[in-house]
Amino acid sequence: MAFRTTIIWLRARLVRSRRRWSRNTGNYGVRYDNYGAPRNTGAVKDALVQLGSGADFTSRLASATIVQPASGNQQEFAADNGDWAGRFGFSWDPFGKSRTVLRGGYGIFYDALFDNLWQNVRDNNMLLPLYTVPFSTSTNYLAPIASVLPGYANQPAGSGFPDVTLIDPKLKNGYAQDFFLGVQQSIGDNLTLEVNGTGTMAGV
Q1: What does the domain layout of the chain look like in residue ranges?
Q2: For the segment 2-23, what is each residue's pLDDT rounded down to a tens digit?
Q3: Sheet arrangement for strand 74-75
Q4: Closest by Cα among 199, 8, 187 to 113
Q5: What's this model's pTM, rounded to 2 decimal places?
Q6: What CA–CA distance (Å, rounded) separates 97 from 184?
Q7: d(CA 25, CA 93)
Q8: Helix, strand, coil distribution of the chain in percent, nearest 5
Q9: Tens digit of pLDDT for each residue in 143-195?
């Protein structure tokens, strides 16, 4: 398989602030992530499935074509430029004695796509035939491949439409919403009791 040359530009910015009142402390901020999108800049290009026209996905898929770029930079899919993530946290001393503290927080966190989601488009350039190992004969799996392949010469290769990988041209990055709430109580000078809860919800 020929090598590909791919470039991905990553950018991130974070702005946050912290405020303190008589018995409260709060912090909040917003983060912007842009994980870019892969761009094939090499000589070997990938065959991409391009959806056709239609009112819904089924009709667009029915009129889809496979496009093989000849030259130039190839964008695998568009970058997700809308990954703004807010977050905040707080601590509160309800009785003003610094012995009971309530803490909580919430935030949205984006993550980059796994590379294997889009790298599988390289398989669109080839047809991978599958052969069945016969149970009636033994197979030496340590033998050189050149001596094993002739035994499968009479097996018919699959004649159906080959498997292809379709990348959503508007593929979005996944994110998680994380939240936390806890209470801490001092019991004497050397003992502290703490109860915390945390959770997360995934989204795309």
Answers
A1: 6-203
A2: 677 788 888 899 999 988 888 8
A3: 6-7, 39-40, 74-75
A4: 8
A5: 0.73
A6: 13
A7: 9
A8: 10, 40, 50
A9: 898 888 787 777 776 666 667 888 888 889 999 999 999 999 999 888 999 99
